[in-house]
Hints:
The structure is a homotetramer.
Chain A: E1 5-12, E2 15-29, E3 34-40, E4 44-49, E5 52-56, H1 60-75, E6 80-85, H2 90-96, E7 103-108, H3 111-120, E8 134-138, H4 141-147, E9 152-158, H5 174-183, E10 184-193, H6 201-214, E11 219-225, E12 230-238, H7 249-258, H8 267-274, H9 278-286
Parallel strand pairs in A: 6-7, 6-9, 7-8, 9-10
Antiparallel strand pairs in A: 1-2, 2-3, 3-4, 4-5, 10-12, 11-12
Amino acid sequence: MRHWHWLIEWDTPTLGHIKAIKRVVYSGRSKYQDIIVIETYEYGLALVLDGKTQSTEFDEFIYHEALVHPAMILHGAPRKVLILGGGEGATLREVLKYGSVERAVMVDIDEEVIRVCREHMRFMNEGVFEDKRVSLVIGDALDYVFNTNEAFDVIIADLSDPIVEGPSYKLYTREFYSRVGEILSPNGVFVTQATSPTNTPETHAVIYSTARSVFPKTTYYHIFIPSFEALWGFVITSKTLDPRGLDPERVDEALARHGVKTRFYDSIAHIHMFSVPRNLREFIERESRVSTFDNPVYMPA
Amino acid sequence: MRHWHWLIEWDTPTLGHIKAIKRVVYSGRSKYQDIIVIETYEYGLALVLDGKTQSTEFDEFIYHEALVHPAMILHGAPRKVLILGGGEGATLREVLKYGSVERAVMVDIDEEVIRVCREHMRFMNEGVFEDKRVSLVIGDALDYVFNTNEAFDVIIADLSDPIVEGPSYKLYTREFYSRVGEILSPNGVFVTQATSPTNTPETHAVIYSTARSVFPKTTYYHIFIPSFEALWGFVITSKTLDPRGLDPERVDEALARHGVKTRFYDSIAHIHMFSVPRNLREFIERESRVSTFDNPVYMPA
Amino acid sequence: MRHWHWLIEWDTPTLGHIKAIKRVVYSGRSKYQDIIVIETYEYGLALVLDGKTQSTEFDEFIYHEALVHPAMILHGAPRKVLILGGGEGATLREVLKYGSVERAVMVDIDEEVIRVCREHMRFMNEGVFEDKRVSLVIGDALDYVFNTNEAFDVIIADLSDPIVEGPSYKLYTREFYSRVGEILSPNGVFVTQATSPTNTPETHAVIYSTARSVFPKTTYYHIFIPSFEALWGFVITSKTLDPRGLDPERVDEALARHGVKTRFYDSIAHIHMFSVPRNLREFIERESRVSTFDNPVYMPA
Amino acid sequence: MRHWHWLIEWDTPTLGHIKAIKRVVYSGRSKYQDIIVIETYEYGLALVLDGKTQSTEFDEFIYHEALVHPAMILHGAPRKVLILGGGEGATLREVLKYGSVERAVMVDIDEEVIRVCREHMRFMNEGVFEDKRVSLVIGDALDYVFNTNEAFDVIIADLSDPIVEGPSYKLYTREFYSRVGEILSPNGVFVTQATSPTNTPETHAVIYSTARSVFPKTTYYHIFIPSFEALWGFVITSKTLDPRGLDPERVDEALARHGVKTRFYDSIAHIHMFSVPRNLREFIERESRVSTFDNPVYMPA
Lengths: 301, 301, 301, 301
């Protein structure tokens, strides 16, 4: 049999990834984006938004563990957590693994993505939206952050990339990060997905330099996501705690103390992610541009 | 302009990478393989053998530094180095950076690859084949290793993958590794490329378990190669020195002492590569098959 | 925007057609095949079975008019018509345009294709299945033809291609055509789709030589179908009427007399289809193999 | 083996043809265009200019016979022939088959295409450039036509398509056709390739309506070219002879009289090409725009 149904994900007009589609599980369009759920041969079910793979059955645990756990463990005992985006529910799933969490607010603009994932990708959200600690807000993360006066111990930005005219680019600016700083509790930690340091290194570096212009103790870390066929980047920061000051040897101990089970993340994975090779370090740290409301930095289209 | 000339690299029949070809610099066929040199948009010049990208102008330094330097530094003061494969010349280039090296033997079966790279990809081999320390042998690495009685401080296997009926699969077997052990000097170090731990995890794991069946101090390490859009794996071993015993903090010092300049590799990159996240560690260490002449383990075709 | 959702239709492993998918309207699998209905950019809605475009909104009229009208007009006054296959309903739609038709039996094995087309591609079958002259049989065309003892004026084979181990190859054999001859009325006409004379010229030629081995007055004709990006072939035959004996000038008159409106087919289109250039004529007429139950001729896989 | 080297020819950003490349025979760039000669699996050697297949070993005879012979036979006894474009040499090859031809001038702007075809695609031009009747001019067809005062019996425009900012769009305008009329001998015939009536129907129709605005006896004809996977269109015209007035039955006789051997073209092929089905006829004849120097009509980019 020759495969005839394909997803081509473009990094640029001259570079892409091609995956055969075994089955279309769901296909539709919300107010904000094209949504398809497909079954792939290598990665099982995959959620694809506007042609970009967001999460797959095979490896979503890597992305979600990498996004959530360093921030939770850096804080130490988070009680209140705010998730911006995260429609699949898996970021919430990781957050709820911590017994210390008393309240988790998740703000996502696209109700349809949540509905589709609850129906077709239950492995990412089984039970989480029914958890009594959870408060789900359908709305714009920007509005929520500027209008709330609640303080959070950990804030996690699990957002779409800052593309031109996209819904998210303001959520990667100095103004936004300043406001995030205001609603973080004194030892609060903020982490954001920060695009791919290899596919869009400039965007990644600007997110880092923007966060650093607000929070002095900022750093970045990276992990390879098989279904993205790329390194993925994160930026983590706090007003008081230095992410580089966390002794990685203590990660295993902290996970055990919280009773958190992981498949990817542990002390060694933490060391791996936070040890960025020389060429990438030099590239990222050379960047000095700061993204602002008036002068945002976009991903190349 | 719509791009019309493409390279599609297949990981499997249902998963691939698609790159536009800007220009064909060379196209031909040797006794052993299809050889093309193309100019790409993202990675500059690329050597592609039988449809697989081997090295690109943009990022070959990552692969070659990752392959060569941990072994050289683990040994400490290598005088005699044997390279199996490595037709582009860049492995040799990295080896020759060490002033301690007095003799470097490179054995490659495909003279045509060497000729094409010397003509079209000089950035990988400028001057190296003219270096008086170098002895170039055109021939089968298997024959060379079984027939030489010279001892080497470092042996580097920069070979094509162990595919069914390919020319290389015997170079990933217990018999071959046993013979490598016999021609290593007492503190000699052996390192081999070990396929991608994410694309072909079973093959990678078997190479590790095969080496471990011969050398007790074996380990594996990984690095992301942008133009491969994948993690790449290596297996490193020695009869006497434990690769895990090397204090990574000393890598920078050792590079400085040898006067070796690198772009990617340093102490932090070393830590990164040797710190393999939990899920991959568990997968690799679970493998117990050993590849032998009679019962070789191949890469899935 | 870069398109990311694609259909690749393969003629061979080294030749294909690539179409962007705007929207997946339906995706499923029947007992017999993968069924998808997609919206394309150039051709509107398209029914795709096992990765092969069957009919599109933009140009299905060409195929269906070419299949049906030459046979209907050659007969002159068909009262009873048998359609084998034709699940979309458009072959039936063309047949029912003739006021002379009193009874049209359609036999298709895949009820699911009919259901999907009735729900999602109504432009091909609006009202036809409700027409009182129509009798729809869900079943195997082979069984139907061997078991009926009814005589038909026109028999139309609108079947899937004769692929190895496919459900249809017996419907292109001498035995089948002999039986078709037995259930044709004295001036009855038989027409079958006959694969592409340019993509699969040998298969096309064997269908012709097989029909000719049963019916002496057989001929072939061709038309270009834009969404197939290929010529398509048909074989038409009768026990008594010579398809080449039909004066094409009379086609317009006959269509007018029957009150049949067409978009593609008329006297000039008839001349076009039945005038096959020299190279194709010579290729087709050189073929002497005959497909039989015991020794079927398949399409290259 | 999975094929990894591909040509994708785009009709639109959402529709294309994909062919595996077996071997790159030549790759380069002239002052005007990218030139590659590849070996394909289905069509043998192919000349590809700026990503568009121009001619293949397998089926170039169809295009070149269709372009040349109707015009030559309509004239009856051409002595002087002018070819505009036609770098491969195959149009010239067909023209030189007529013993009546005393002088054939070929004007092509791209010397490099001619050189590459003479070296790598000899089947299209063996001996033709050495023929004493031939005069080869490297230059712009527009300049040549406006500057010559020689009269020609047949003028053949074998040019690249009229794309925006391309070198050819002026060669499809009323002004150009008017000048062509001035250098045609009294019974002279002009024929031009006229793009694909199915891929770019508007462009095809405008070429026809432009020619018709100058020459009252103009018509169009079409043929399927397998390697283009499309119908191809031509426009033929004369000041005095009606192309529709040529009795196709006389084509075979005329070919025999001139001693011209063909593989595709004969009386029946002539009928086929000039009998255009209703939907295409109606589309083409509805067009009234005329392309001019000031207001040219381009192909959609």
